[in-house]
Write a structure and sequence with these properties.
Number of strands: 20
CATH class of the largest domain: Alpha Beta
Structural class: alpha/beta
Shape: globular
Number of helices: 12
Distance between the termini: 63 Å
Amino acid sequence: MTTTTGEIILKPGREKPVRNRHPWIFSGAIQQVRGKPKTGDIVEVLDKNGRFLARAYYNPHSQIRARILTWTSNEPIDPTFWEHRIKQAITARQLLALEPATTAYRLIHAEADGLPGLIVDKYANYLVIQCLTAGIDRYKQTIIEILANLLHPTGIIERSDVDVRRKEGLEPVSSIVWGNKPPELFVVQENGFLMQANLLTGHKTGLYLDQRENRTAVCQPHHVSHKEILNVFAYTGGFALYAAAHHPTTIVNLDSSATALQEAHQNLQLNNLHRPQDEYITGDAFEILRYYRDTNRQFDMVILDPPKFAHTQRDIERACRGYKDLNWLAFRILRPGGLLATFSCSGLISADLFQKVVFGALVDAGREAQIIQTLGQASDHPISLTFPESAYLKGLLCRVW
C-alpha cells in the first residue's frame, strides 16, 4: 500500500461534501493537519472523531488543499490503482463507439473519471496529456508508462501549459514525453470530417473536442442550407466545416489569429469543401460585430464560441459583461427568424447564470427569442453527478424574432 504521510482532520460539519463524494477539500474545511505531508503526498481524510472518510493527494500551496482519489479505506494508491482507473476511463470511451468515424476524443476527463487533475486526449495514434495539479504531476511518469503499455501510441505529448498550474505552484510544461514527435499539422477525423490538429501549439490539446456534438446539432441542413452564417471565434473552423457540407450561401469566419483562420481554410480544402465566396477575417470580435451593427450587415445565423472569460471568482462580473455585450451585438445583426448558437466554456459561469446573461442581452436588444435546444459538452467529456463542476461547457440555440 502507498504510504500516507499525514492526516487531515475536517472541521465539525464539513464532512458532508466528502461523504457525498465531492472530490475537493478546501483549506477552510480543515481543522488540523497531522504529520508533515509535502506537495503531492497521499493523506488520509478523517472526520472530527478520527473516522476514515477518504484518501487524497495533498497540496499545502493550493486553495484546494486535497483532491480525493478514493473513498474506500482498503484501496491503496499504487500503480494498480492508477492502471485500474485509466482502464475504466478507456472502457467508457470504447462503449461510446466513436471510432472509426471519430479518431480524436477525450479519454480521461479528470475528476469526472475519478482522476482529479488529469486530462488525456486521443488524436488517432497520439495521446496528449495535461497534468493540472501538483498531485497528478507527482505521478505523471507512472501514468505515462501505463498509457503507453495499454494503448501503444506512436507518441505522447504533454501540454501542461495552462495557467491553472500556477495556482498549484507549478510551471507550464510542453514537451514530447514518450515516443515520436507528431507532424506539425496532424490529420484526424471527427464524425467523418478530416481536421488538422496542432498537438504541440494548438489551443487546449490541439482541437476543441468538446464541441463535436454541438457542431452536428447547430449545423443541421435545415439550419444552415442557403443561409448567411457568421462564425465568431472560428479558430480552425470546426463549425464552418460542418456547415459547409450543407451548402450555406456564405460563411464569414472571424478570429483574432490569422494562423488559425489559415488552418480553417485548409480544413475545408482537405474535405473538398473549398468555397471562394466565404470570408476569413482577422480581428477583434467585439469591434467587428459593432462594425456589422453600424453598417447594418445582417446574418441568418451567428455562432459565438468565445474562449474562457472567467478564470477566477473575481472574473465573473467582468465575464458576464463580456458575454452580454457579445450576445447583444449578435441579436442586433440577426435577421428575423435567424438562429443564435451561443456558448460559454467558463466553468465558473453556471448554465442558469449564462441563460440570464443572454436574456439580459435580448431585452436590451429589443428582440424576442426562443430556446430551441440547450447544448453542452460532448459525451466523451462526462459530468460526474457528485461533481457538478465537471459541467463547464454550456450553450443555447435560439430562434430570434
